[in-house]
């Protein structure tokens, strides 16, 4: 069969990237786009040669007339819960773009709503498809570096308004002017580097650690003059087995998908018997072991379908009646959200926060 997919809410520039994945999938087609501001859909409509009949301003009309089986949903972070709760009763599977949620309560509400609907629910973390990070996970699971003790994460970009879909660059002056009106720079909308990037680190970090969670979290954020949100955060997570750190940054010297900044964006993973450095989108990872203390560069694994992008993976799950597992699963994303929730509280109250304090279900 050909899977019918609609893109709803264009708050996040990643919509174009995900629609391209649909367009390139042999068994999927874009049947509808929906946004309250029609102009935001036009670029994608032109790019994928969609007729005006495929463009909608009303969500219910979009789903009733276009009849998608899968919806890609990309509202601003603070609107994730509202939009999932709006979409869930309409009988479609949902791919929600990262981050999972603005709060843990929102995350739990979305999990419950989608479970009640009986439809598949996936949270897409684009770094889940970076070959280097997938290679690092394979080596950890194979025992190459022993028991994982530390996750060191640093990631971000020049700023969320410096690029469009497919990483098309925006002139610096235009990006700066757009910040005054963008939800990315509004706290109540879920803006800020912490919410934008910390979930990557905490969710992939938990995945690397096979579900182990920290005991407590301490976070500090900057307070840029004239801005409502942070552009830099640093989180220390204390586990039974040691410390890990997660740093988010808007304002890197360069964008990592063009030129790696310094510090490099990605992960350094420290185990009892070795270390791995896996930097975003680089063709090799660096591995130290007790038998090779000087370290060696390893080519990253070539990812194969259906594990190259979220569209492939979700369609695979649907066609095989399989649950969403790993990084895209609500369960793993919830673990990352728990750590993020503790980080937000820690930054607000300027103290260490026990994970058990925020995760009453844990």
Quick rundown:
It is built from 11 helices and 15 strands.
Could you describe the 3D structure shown?
The protein has eleven helices and 15 strands. It has helices spanning 14-24, 39-47, 59-66, 80-87, 104-117, 131-141, 172-178, 193-208, 310-319, 330-349, 355-358; strands spanning 3-10, 28-34, 55-56, 70-74, 93-97, 121-124, 148-157, 216-221, 232-239, 242-250, 266-271, 274-279, 284-289, 292-299, 353-354. A nine-stranded mixed beta sheet has the order 14-13-12-11-7-10-9-8-15. A six-stranded parallel beta sheet has the order 3-2-1-4-5-6, sandwiched between helices. It folds into two domains: 3-125, NAD(P)-binding Rossmann-like Domain (Rossmann fold); 128-307 and 336-358, 2-Layer Sandwich (Dihydrodipicolinate Reductase, domain 2). Helix 5 (104-117) packs antiparallel against helix 10. With 362 residues, it is of the alpha/beta class. It is globular and about 60 Å long. A hairpin with a 4-residue loop joins strand 12 and strand 13 (284-289). The longest helix is centred in the last third of the chain and has 20 residues, at 330-349.
What share of residues are in beta strands?
25-35%
Number of helices: 11
Flag low-confidence runs: none
The appropriate CATH architecture of the largest domain is 2-Layer Sandwich
Radius of gyration, in angstroms, nearest whole number = 20 Å
Overall 3D shape: globular
**Going by CATH, what is the homologous superfamily of the largest domain?**
Dihydrodipicolinate Reductase, domain 2
Please tally the β strands and state the result: 15
The structure class reads alpha/beta
SSE pattern: EHEHEHEHEHEHEHHEEEEEEEHHEH
Indicate the CATH class of the largest domain: Alpha Beta
How can the largest sheet be summarized? 9 strands, mixed
The chain-level mean pLDDT equals 97
Helix content: 25-40%
Distance between the termini: 41 Å
Strand order of the largest sheet: 14-13-12-11-7-10-9-8-15
Total domains? 2
CATH topology tier name of the largest domain: Dihydrodipicolinate Reductase, domain 2
């Amino acid at each position: 069969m050909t899977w019918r997919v609609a893109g709803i809410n264009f708050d996040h520039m990643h919509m174009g990237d995900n629609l391209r994945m649909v367009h390139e999938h042999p068994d999927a087609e874009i049947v509808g786009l929906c946004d309250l501001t029609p102009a935001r859909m036009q670029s994608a409509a032109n790019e994928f040669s969609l007729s005006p009949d495929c463009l909608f301003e009303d969500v219910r009309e979009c789903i009733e007339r276009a009849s998608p089986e899968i919806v890609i949903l990309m509202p601003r972070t603070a609107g994730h819960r509202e939009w999932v709760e709006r979409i869930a009763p309409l009988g479609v599977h949902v791919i929600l773009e990262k981050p999972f949620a603005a709060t843990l309560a929102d995350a739990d509400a979305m999990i419950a709503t989608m479970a009640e609907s009986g439809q598949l629910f996936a949270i897409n973390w684009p770094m889940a498809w970076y070959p280097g990070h997938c290679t690092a996970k394979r080596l950890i699971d194979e025992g190459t570096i022993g028991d994982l003790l530390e996750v060191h994460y640093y990631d971000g970009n020049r700023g969320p308004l410096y690029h469009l879909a497919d990483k098309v660059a925006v002139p610096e002056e235009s990006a700066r002017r757009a910040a005054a009106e963008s939800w990315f720079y509004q706290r109540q909308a879920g803006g800020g580097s912490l919410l934008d990037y910390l979930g990557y680190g905490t969710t992939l970090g938990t995945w690397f650690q096979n579900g182990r969670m920290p005991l407590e979290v301490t976070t500090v954020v900057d307070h840029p003059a004239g801005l409502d949100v942070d552009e830099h955060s640093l989180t220390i997570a204390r586990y039974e087995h040691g410390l890990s750190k997660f740093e988010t940054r808007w304002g890197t010297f360069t964008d990592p998908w063009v030129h790696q900044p310094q510090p490099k964006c990605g992960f350094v993973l420290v185990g009892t018997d070795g270390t791995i450095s896996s930097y975003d989108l680089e063709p090799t990872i660096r591995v130290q072991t007790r038998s090779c203390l000087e370290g060696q560069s390893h080519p990253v694994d070539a990812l194969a379908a259906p594990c190259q992008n979220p569209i492939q993976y979700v369609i695979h799950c649907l066609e095989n009646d399989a649950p969403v597992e790993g990084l895209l699963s609500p369960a793993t994303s919830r673990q990352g959200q728990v750590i993020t929730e503790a980080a937000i509280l820690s930054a607000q109250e300027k103290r260490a926060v026990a994970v058990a304090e925020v995760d009453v279900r844990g």
